[in-house]
Design a protein that fits this description.
The complex is a heterodimer of chains A (295) and B (317).
Chain A lengths: L1 H8 L23 H22 L3 H5 L14 H8 L2 H32 L5 H11 L4 H14 L6 H5 L6 H11 L4 H9 L4 H12 L1 H17 L2 H6 L8 H7 L8 H21 L1 H14 L1
Helix pairs in contact in A: 1-16, 2-15, 4-15, 5-9, 5-12, 6-9, 9-12, 10-11, 12-16
Chain B lengths: L1 H16 L2 H36 L2 E2 L7 E2 L3 H9 L1 H34 L4 H9 L6 H11 L5 H8 L14 H11 L2 H12 L3 H9 L4 H29 L3 H6 L16 H10 L3 H29 L8
Antiparallel strand pairs in B: 1-2
The chains are: A mainly alpha (295), B mainly alpha (317).
Amino acid sequence: MTMEAQADRIAWPEEAEAVERPRRRWLPFSPWHLVLFPLALIMLLPLVWMIVTSLETQAESLHFPPVLVPGSLHFGNYPSALRSAPFGRWFLNTFIVTSTVVVSNLLLCSLAGYAFARIRFFGRAATFMLLLATLMVPFQVVMIPTFLIVKKLGLFDSLPALIAPNLVSAFGIFMLRQFFRTLPVELEEAARIDGASRLGVLFKIVLPLSLPALATLAVIQFMWTWNDFLWPLIAVFSQRNFTLQLGLTVFQGSHDVFWPLVMAGNVMSMIPMLVLFFAAQRYFVRGIATTGLKG
Amino acid sequence: MATTLTAREAAPAIRRRRPRSGRFRRVAIVLLFMSPWIVGFLAFILYPMLASLYFSFTKYNLLQPPEWVGLFNYKFMFLHDPLFWQSVRNTVWIVLFGVPVSIVFAVGTAMVLTRVKVGSGVYRTMFFLPTMVPAVAATLSFVFLLNPSGPINTILRLLHIPQPLWFASPQWSKPALVGLSLWAIGETMIIFLAALLDVPRQLYEAADMEGAGPWQKFRHVTLPMISPVIFFSVVIGVIFGFQYFTQAYIASGGQLHLGEPQGSMRFYAVWMFQQIQYSHMGYASALAWVLFLVVMACTVVLIKASRRWVHYQGGFR
């Protein structure tokens, strides 16, 4: 409950209470803007430059000194990027992997999280400690054997290789368990007395009440999977099975990098994240605040 | 709290209603609900951990079966592998320098953000936006921005500031990576912002009554109150610092140039990845286990040390 309250308090933009001193004013605005404004511009610079470069010609992108305002906007860089590499394919791959992982995590983490939150069983505390301990294991430690398992299953260099190890996450179970425990138990008890099964209670009562937590988990899992780099680098070999993150590195190999196309690819790889961010801002903020305060 | 109490109160009623047979059913249900995680845990955590521990005592190139060599990999690592020590130095640099700088910057930005009213939402979005850029794209765009004759160096030249070669120079490659991590500071900043807004206003008022100056208020009110979050960020920063990989991989120029220039971006995880490329699976596993043990040890030390300086307020958790 505190997690919810905390997250809601910082749900931006306007709810935050700013601590502004009533002081002698020598500026028509708070002097802190003099720090924040340049800093914010610096933060935006790489993004702006990425977009500008993606609309320039190769000559302009390599011009010295750099051209900030291109002579004309070359939107054609985007279709050329799509043609010069199987970007569409990589998009589709990343989308398939990410959506499968997100959906399966929502379902499977809910099941286990509910068992941890509401069903008393022998060894629950110990099992839960085990779950938390797995959060500490660096991926590098399990990477090589996981690669061998995937190979043995005949999944090497395929999309299922990227999906299988990530179908259920300890973090998701932990997060949902924490949330389920904050729900009032009376509704569930009433439904149980009316003869509903555990599964029925979970799907008809608990999950509908947990939509914010589920959305937060979905957003976090989406970010992780969409941005994952190391595992795809190991588990996938041929370009047709690349994810976007791997695909972007293809351009790097050659010596004369065609920057406008790279940047066009960059921008395209960001778009889903940005759309998601603006559509689900509060879940991002909530997710980060909860992982931060409760992790 | 209240909910758990009611759960406990309500439980006996259910137990009375369905005595013996209910027990087995419940075990069956628990197993059913947990089975996906149990399978995942066994197949992708427990077995791989044990397997990589075993591999770490073997010579294994994927073609022949693993051949037991005892502690050879570990001895080789510590005694005969200069690049291992290079990767350790680079990684320690990131952990000891990059992590604190990022945290100080995040705290500073968050504190300044709490000071302004007008446009604070816009600022927050602007500071957070870079976090949304996937690491690969972010690093690529920094490689472009910081290329020796690129935009940043042009600006520096106009200001008559010396222009480093950034990712092309062994001295400046790691600072450039720190710059990249400062750019993507949004997440940490949001966590600190939440913590700062959570500090009860009365504490500052009380400090004002005592005549405390801004520094004293920061030192004796703000800092203790946000110390749990600082602690959390340090732990996470250290854990991820030791595993630093993606940005270094991209910034050094990919697969064929790992660690360049002059090994200045050969971080621990990069060196381990190179061993996998050479099919030195046994040695790579030994590296992984040393990483694991070091991360565990650091976490334990940080937790032990935290009792001295982390201030848990009753209502915080």
